Amino acid sequence: MEKLFESFEIKGCPIRNRVCFPPMVYYGAGDDSGEVTEKHVEHYRSIAAGRTGLIIQEATCVSRGGRLSFDQLGIWDDGKIQGLKKIVDAVHGEGCPIFVQIHHAGVVGCEKELLCPSDYTLNSEKGVKQGRAMSLEEIRQVQQEFIAAGRRAYEAGYDGIELHGCHRYLICQFLNRRVNRREDVYGREPERFVLEILEGIRKVTPPDFIVGIRLGAFEPTLEDGLRYASILEEQGIDFLDISYGFTGEDEPQAPEGYPYQACIYGAARIKEQVSVPVFAVNSIVTPQMAEEILQTQKVDMVDLCRAVMVDNNWVNDARAGRSTGMCRRCSPCGLRVKGGVCAGKVLLERERAKEEQTC
Asked: What is the structure's pLDDT at 339?
């Protein structure tokens, strides 16, 4: 496990190991106000206390109209700063850096009127959603909302931000030419939407403030993902957190017999051509698997979401050679439904109890 527990830095920010807890919305912890609750604070404190190297806070919305759910955390006005600072202070108190992922859902949102680069009909598991093409004025307004959110993140004390540019959300919608069919500059140069946001955030935050992006490897093809990664590096992005893009309008690929998820292959290919840190994610469950991916795919960090949700003490347990449990992939996830009972946590606690009895 020499690589997994190795420390490194992102733009001068010390990170104690190569395990990142990636952004995952903590459903049921908040309400329509978008305010931070004690549940949020304790959730992130517990993960930081388990010696996770880095935390990227869940998708936190830049505007009420851009939410993915009515209980999503918000960063859309200055009044949110003090609440968000409670999360930052709790995590920093455990010696862990924290970034916040800033987000706009676009056509995947929960409001009646849904914005999208072009008119677009989304058929999803939640039904049919109709996105309306954004005007130039609306594009500039949303960009300003991202920029203001970046400033608020800095003022709340976060070590950096991650722009949410994958998983069907708004930035992703601009980057995917099968969704973005605009005939203006934002269609001819899809990356312009996010590059102007990046430029604006740089103007309202100090030079050492970290700005990265969660980027789809296949947008819609791997060649597109590689091109966007190179452009973003040239324009000063600080890290690339690689996942899937606009599902249903993409072409994930990996060589036959490849042992991991296609988006991990995408992350490895992207890392071959950029020098900034690259994160890999998806179905990384054991310490052995995490170490192997770091060693063989040459990425800089591994995102462990489900694993750390099951065992907040995952890093400490992995280092000590103890069981780290296993996500049971319940549908729906027990942590997201009433009661918040995680089957993986329950089984891990039973296993630990048996170990104690044996000792």
From this structure: 66
Strand ranges (DSSP E) for the chain?
8-10, 13-15, 19-21, 54-61, 98-103, 114-116, 120-124, 127-133, 160-165, 210-216, 240-243, 278-281, 301-303
The DSSP call for residue 5 is T
d(CA 21, CA 99): 10
Bridging pattern class, strands 278-281 and 301-303: parallel
Q: Span 314-334, mean pLDDT?
A: 87
d(CA 239, CA 222): 18
3-state secondary structure of 227: helix
Candidates 230, 252, 258; CA nearest to 166 is 252
The 10s digit of each residue's pLDDT in 150-162 is 999 999 999 999 9
Q: Which residues pair with 60 in a beta bridge?
A: 102
Name the DSSP class of 135: P
> pTM of the predicted model, to two decimals?
0.95
